[in-house]
Write a sequence for this structure.
């Protein structure tokens, strides 16, 4: 359940988006990550407000703090006159934790400051219209389910959630979610972490406001929607992806929310077993995840397909490398048990890998 604010919505997540075009050869400037989540079905968002001289952003009912270069939890706490232990405990971190440049920490109490203002002309009605325009009416929202510029929604990360699933839940791109929260290049999130949900941009919205949904759904959890026939046909004709590892399925694909949620397939295999790329493509990212997947490799393929390989050791490829179907890209990392995580994504959405592997 969303810890802070429930999003009332009816969602049909389409298997279409320009998700991969910006994955290659992208430098990572301040507050940005590779654009792994842009999608034609997500509404544009406003820029995150600038912090004050202490690094604090003050909203109506809560505050956050943006890390500077070289910061630790202790140095951030000292700037606002707070005990380091209090700030660390509230964020589930150690006092000596070194946040990334631009990483956002939640403040446990008000430390003073001016509340950010709303952009000129911003209204909830126009925000609803912006979402309706961007999604072609496939997602319906009501005013209470929207964050405001002076009070964005917050989401406390639950076990099994990822930046991708949270971004889909609120109909924002994963890039926007990462930028607002200072996520790392691996887009890792930790259980219990508080994320700020980016606010829709209304500056280019001129259409008449859209009426709220007549019968809102009380839960923010999207109901998995069967893939359209065209998408299934595309999967079936994917020229047969190679099974990424010789192993047995430990946890199958299960996109439903809950303790057993899984955006891919987890295989159990002997540590040191070869990990193979499923199809021809280009390596978009090699990084270390903070979300329990160890070292991950992302490969961009044709037709807006991305494959993700987690818990990989001794990686033999680098970002930008061209890889071929069946090529070894590393080995299964040691673990108890040793497992390898595999995902297939179409646009921003995870899809069942099984049809691609047949």
């Amino acid at each position: 359940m969303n810890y802070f604010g429930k999003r009332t919505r009816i969602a049909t997540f389409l298997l279409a988006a320009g998700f991969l075009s910006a994955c290659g050869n992208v430098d990572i400037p301040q507050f940005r990550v590779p654009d792994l989540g842009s999608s034609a079905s997500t509404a544009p968002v406003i820029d995150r407000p600038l912090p004050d001289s202490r690094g604090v952003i003050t909203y109506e009912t809560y505050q956050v703090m943006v890390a500077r270069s070289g910061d630790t939890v202790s140095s951030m706490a000292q700037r606002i006159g707070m005990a380091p232990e209090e700030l660390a405990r509230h964020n589930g971190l150690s006092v000596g934790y070194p946040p990334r440049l631009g990483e956002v920490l939640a403040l446990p109490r008000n430390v003073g400051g001016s509340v950010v203002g709303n952009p000129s002309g911003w209204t909830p009605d126009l925000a609803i219209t912006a979402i309706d325009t961007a999604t072609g009416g496939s997602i319906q929202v009501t005013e209470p389910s929207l964050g405001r510029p002076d009070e964005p929604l917050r989401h406390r990360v639950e076990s099994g959630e990822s930046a991708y699933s949270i971004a889909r839940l609120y109909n924002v791109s994963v890039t926007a979610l990462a930028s607002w929260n200072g996520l790392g290049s691996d887009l890792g999130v930790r259980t219990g972490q508080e994320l700020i949900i980016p606010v829709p941009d209304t500056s280019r919205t001129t259409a008449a406001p859209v009426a709220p949904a007549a019968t809102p759904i009380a839960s923010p959890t999207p109901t998995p929607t069967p893939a359209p026939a065209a998408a299934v046909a595309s999967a079936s004709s994917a020229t047969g992806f190679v099974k990424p590892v010789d192993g047995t399925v430990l946890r199958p694909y299960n996109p439903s929310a809950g303790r057993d949620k899984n955006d891919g397939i987890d295989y159990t295999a002997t540590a040191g077993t070869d990990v193979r790329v499923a199809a021809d493509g280009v390596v978009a990212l090699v990084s270390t995840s903070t979300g329990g997947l160890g070292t991950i490799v992302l490969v961009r393929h044709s037709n807006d397909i991305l494959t993700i390989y987690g818990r990989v050791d001794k990686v033999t490829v680098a970002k930008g490398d061209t890889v071929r179907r069946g090529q070894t890209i590393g080995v299964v990392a040691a673990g108890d048990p040793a497992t390898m995580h595999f995902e297939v994504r179409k646009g921003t959405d995870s899809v069942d890998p099984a049809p691609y592997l047949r």
Notes: The CA atoms of residues 38 and 173 lie 5 Å apart. The longest helix spans residues 124-135. Confidence is low (pLDDT under 50) at residues 1-40, 206-239. Residues 56-106 form a domain with the Membrane-bound Lytic Murein Transglycosylase D; Chain A fold (CATH 3.10.350.10).
